[in-house]
Design a protein that fits this description.
The structure holds two protein chains of two kinds. By secondary structure, chain A is mostly helical. Chain A has helices at 2-16, 25-48, 67-85, 88-103, 112-128, 144-147. Chain A folds into two domains: 2-107, no CATH class; 109-156, no CATH class. By secondary structure, chain B is mainly beta. Chain B has a domain at 1-60: Alpha-Beta Plaits, CATH 3.30.70. In chain B, β2 and β3 (34-36) form a beta hairpin. The radius of gyration of chain B is 22 Å and the shape is elongated. Classes of the chains: A mainly alpha, B mainly beta.
Amino acid sequence: MYGFVIFVATTVIMIFNPPVEGDDMLPQLWHIGAIMLAIGSWWFWLFIRVDVAAEGNKWYNIEPMDLFSLSLMATSAFALLWSYAGGWILFALFIASSTILFGGVLWSKFAHMFFKPAAAYNKRMIKADGSNENLPQPADRQNPADRDRHSMELLKDAPLDMGLGIKRDAPRHY
Amino acid sequence: MPTFVYMTRCDGCGHCVDICPSDIMHIDKKYRRAVNIEPNMCWECYSCVKACPQNAIDVRGYADFAPLGHSVRVLREEEKGTIAWKIKFRDGREKNFLSPITTKPWGKAIPELAKLPVPTKEDHDGDYLCFEPAAFNQDEGMHTLATNGLKFKEGVYY
């Protein structure tokens, strides 16, 4: 993720403010970002994706949902290949794969890049305005208002930290 | 009415899939988030609602007894051993409930039934056990998992 941020940020900066000759920092950051992105996306594809409890797809089983992962891998790979070898074909492939990556937002999991921050912001908002989306307030067993409620006296002698029950296991039983 | 998942809030952890007794909570292959694949078979047990760490699941109410405008939300905090419900009625009334879900720390006080003493003759002649083992109607002997060639698969820990 950080690789992606560095990569995109340096790309944008270098397009609109090309570095002068001799100034190596931005190109180096670009390469660092691309390498981080390539390592991360390929590592996910080849090792983590096959382990996921829900499906566990092999690396050669491609599904429509893989649009995001594959275009991310292609973008980083072609970026590094173009930087190393040069030439119009690799540049065109790099541009094509990054276009698919960003253009496919509506149809791929990349949309969650927008959903997740929106959901996190929404969470902060509902905490701030008190509504908490109608969820009850978290219990405070040391607060007499909660501690002395009807039936809560059953917890009078119980420790404040009861340990983990169903959350003790990672959900792998399906 | 059945449960539904706010896919933007869901992170695809799978706790609801594990705990659904009707096996209808699945992970959507495309979005890698939870989804109720068969709302008709939902028991409305609220297990998935309580188990979700992100509180991303909610339940639609049947239109005939829970018309639009109500809200029923639950927060299960097993580290504290409590479960809290917040019910909002259509006329604005609000009810808050807070109850324990366990009185001893999780996993600490599981009784070891195999180590309890075998029932005595007085117990067998008493109210509870006087019809056993004849009432089991198992003339060829007690059925166990082992005698039927079955193995107990480890499930969600309680």
